[in-house]
Amino acid sequence: MRAWIVWSTGVLAYIVAVLDRTTLGVSGLDAAKRFSASPGVLSTFVVLQVIVYAAAQIPAGLLLDRFGSKVMILSGATLMVAGQLALAFTVSLPAAIGARAVVGLGDAFTFISVLRLVPHWFTPRQIPLVTQLTGISGQLGQVLSAVPFLSLLIGSGWTRAYTTVAAFGVLSLVLTLLLVKNTPPGVTVHDPAVSLRETLSSVKTIWMRPGTRLGFFTHMGTQFSVTVFALMWGVPYLTVAQNLSRSQAGTLLTISVVAAIVFGVVIGMITGRHPHRRSWIVLGIVISNALVWTVVLALPHAAPHWLLVVLIVVISFGGPGSMVGFDFARTFNPRSTLGTAQGAVNMGGFLASLLVMQAMGMIIGAAGGYSFNSFRLAWCVQYVVWVLAIAAILITRKKARRTIGDIEESRYLLEFFSDAEVAPVSRRGR
């Protein structure tokens, strides 16, 4: 029971982080009016946040390996509360952009810190499923931004909505302080002691492990589309190009979370039992994302509502799919550097997201502003990322197959899977 309490408290911190991350996505049009921002400038709000988030992943991972989950979750919560409060009261565009950067830094500390709790508090058989549950439970923050936050924004205004979000952050901070422990009481984790200098010098080694790179490109190819949709351009696209009301757009984002939860449980069970099928699942998700967007973008007019639901459901598979990237990192890296490896993986999807978000903002602006045609053209930049990710996954998967037979790498796999499950991996690859 104690393990679930610690994990649930950490997940609450992640839920608040996702809420903080996605508030500007549902309030983008309000932000444009409040700060007199063009589409290109508006995209800079979120792009800078994601730049900070992505750039902080390796440093956050190094700090996590050195100080542990509790300190990092508390630090992240403090930064996000400060950023949301600043955004709530400022009417200055530079100050607002700076506040979003602070939110991005706090967000960067949170997820990998919660994820690191899992191998310490749960059995090896539970880890893949609990890892998936961590990711999909955190997406409840998107529901909070799409429904109650949006309702509060419409009914009570910008300042009250953002201060309420900050109050949730304070609650999470207090609960983390009281309930989260890095390891179970009385349990000694036999991780080798690694100095900060040694950890810094090991970053290249961690990246050169094919499983780390496979995780990076897995995260890149699966996660960016739904992230761009939820974080920045989804609500404007649905309301302007697809002629939906803001409440209807919020409902579709809620459907996204439900789809991610259902699929996350399924993929967690499958990857736990069949680790050698993980890369095929990832490739299927990437290809399905590209196909459903092709169908929607090929239409010369607004899509029917049922097709938009299909679009939302399919791209939502990318969230659970990206969690497989962390499983690759866990398989190929020792616990002493796992935070750094997971930070490297987490950069993949967010680097792709920030590039796509910024490119879309520039295309929409160059095409004359918000319209059906400008959005249709802007979403096409996704195909570049999909092609790159598929090619990189195929290349790194091949290298991982060659490496899996090596004794040093195989001993990490043996830590998490039974002999019966390892045997087919060594024969058939990943």
Automatic annotation (TrEMBL):
Chief localization: membrane
Coiled coil spans: none
SUPFAM superfamilies with a match to the protein in the record: MFS general substrate transporter
UniProt cross-references to Pfam families, sorted A to Z: MFS_1 (PF07690)
Native source organism of the sequence: Mycolicibacterium sphagni
Membrane association type: Multi-pass membrane protein
Record protein name field: MFS transporter
UniProt KW Acetylation keyword: no
Stretches that traverse the bilayer: 41-64, 71-91, 161-180, 214-235, 247-268, 280-299, 305-329, 350-370, 376-395
Keywords: Membrane, Transmembrane, Transmembrane helix, Transport
High-level lineage: Bacteria, Bacillati, Actinomycetota, Actinomycetes, Mycobacteriales
GO molecular function, one term: transmembrane transporter activity
Gene3D superfamilies in the record: MFS general substrate transporter like domains (1.20.1250.20)
Gene Ontology cellular component list: plasma membrane
Compartment(s): Cell membrane
Domain Major facilitator superfamily (MFS) profile positions: 6-401
